[in-house]
Specification:
- This is NAD-dependent epimerase/dehydratase.
- Pfam families: Epimerase (PF01370).
- It comes from Chroococcidiopsis thermalis (strain PCC 7203).
- This protein is of the alpha/beta class and 342 residues long.
- The chain has a single domain, classed as NAD(P)-binding Rossmann-like Domain (Rossmann fold, 3-Layer(aba) Sandwich), CATH 3.40.50.720.
- 33% of the residues lie in helices and 15% in strands.
- The protein has 12 helices and 11 strands.
- A 7-stranded parallel beta sheet has the order 3-2-1-4-5-6-10, with helices on both faces.
- Helix 3 links the parallel strand 4 and strand 5.
- The N and C termini lie far apart (61 Å).
């Protein structure tokens, strides 16, 4: 099968390309040529900018891919251009989306005041009422554009009369090349031999869906190559759902840390401590559909996924920590004071 991957050189993209190539497909990657990626020699490349996608239409016509996998359709305009360009060229588009489409995400962020949504979320769970959540944020995740909105992307892709769509909604993804360095704030404390990491009780018991990059990539590859995925929406996430305390304890064990996770009640925290999340709202999804329909299962175990991520993170410490990771962590002096009092 001929498959075109748009944006296959950053984080999840290369893993998707490698999976598709290993399955025996003819894979071409459309990218700007600005990021070096570990891709097989047999991969073809088309260089160009996403903003000028329409100018490459004749090139795409010559390639004539059967399936187009778009790794980063961020906006409604992205999706409209995508579907218009590949109408009459490709048979199907697979668009990568996010768990942030759900109302549960807005409840968690305290943007929507509706009651807590039941979990695990299914592909039919309620979506957010409010669009463009990042528009008013001073710092947007991964420098997403102000008009970022996966809900609108999904509407365009799934409602085209002339080109079939498939949506894969991703969880919080970790692994090598993670631009958010999700494990780093915790691993740093472990490697500095802190005796404990203090978590507020509400965070310690919170549950969210995570996914290791290679497993997520395998799920995307299945969605791109299985005819049953036409017109379908899928979740992918780790099968094992842990509380944050359990997850970080597992990270610590794999990292060889001798400390422990300590859970404390809110009254033990500084009076000015505030985390802008509704932690009563869990953010986890059901992955039954992709497992039953496409035969998905993890290709990398949780232990190996954590070990690989930890090894990479230790050899690639970030120069600065993303404001989107480790928000719940206390400074060392406060943490020490709390530990002495319990």
């Amino acid at each position: 099968m001929k498959i075109l991957v748009i944006g296959g050189t950053n984080f999840i993209g290369p893993a998707v390309v490698r999976q598709l190539y290993a399955m025996g497909h003819e894979v071409t990657v459309f990218h700007r040529g600005k990021t070096a990626a570990d891709l097989p020699e047999g991969i073809q490349h088309i260089l160009g900018d996403r903003s000028a996608l329409s100018q490459m239409k004749s090139e795409f016509e010559r390639l004539s891919p059967q399936v187009v996998v778009d790794m980063f359709p961020y906006t409604e305009a992205d999706a409209i251009a995508l579907m218009n360009i590949f109408q009459g060229i490709a048979e199907r588009v697979v668009a990568i989306s996010s768990m942030d489409v759900y109302r549960a995400y807005a409840v968690f962020l305290q943007i929507e005041s509706t009651p807590v949504e039941p979990v695990p979320l299914t592909e039919n769970s309620a979506l957010r009422q409010q669009l463009h959540l990042f528009r008013e944020m001073a710092e947007r995740p991964l420098n997403a554009p102000a008009d970022y909105e996966k809900i609108l992307v999904e509407r365009v892709v799934m409602n085209s009369a002339d080109l079939t769509g498939t949506i894969v909604r991703l969880p919080m993804v970790y692994g090598t090349q993670d631009p958010l360095n999700r494990l780093f704030p915790y691993l740093k404390r472990m490697d500095e031999d802190r005796p404990a990491i203090v978590l507020p009780e509400s965070i310690a018991q919170w549950r969210g869906s995570y996914g290791y990059v290679e497993n997520v990539a395998y799920a995307i590859a299945l969605a791109a190559t299985n005819e049953r995925a036409k017109g379908r929406i899928y979740h992918v996430a780790d099968a094992e759902v842990l509380t944050e305390a359990e997850r970080l304890s597992r990270v610590g064990r794999v990292a060889g840390w001798q400390g422990k996770i300590v859970t404390v009640a809110t009254e033990s925290l500084p009076t000015d401590w505030n985390l802008p999340y509704n932690t009563a709202q869990y953010w986890l999804v059901d992955t039954t559909r992709i497992r039953q329909e496409l035969g998905y299962s993890e290709v990398v175990t949780l232990e190996k996924a954590l070990k690989t991520t930890i090894d990479w993170q230790r050899s690639h410490p970030p120069t600065e920590i993303s404001p989107w990771t480790g928000k719940e962590l206390l400074d060392y002096a406060t943490e020490d004071r709390i530990l002495k009092s319990i």
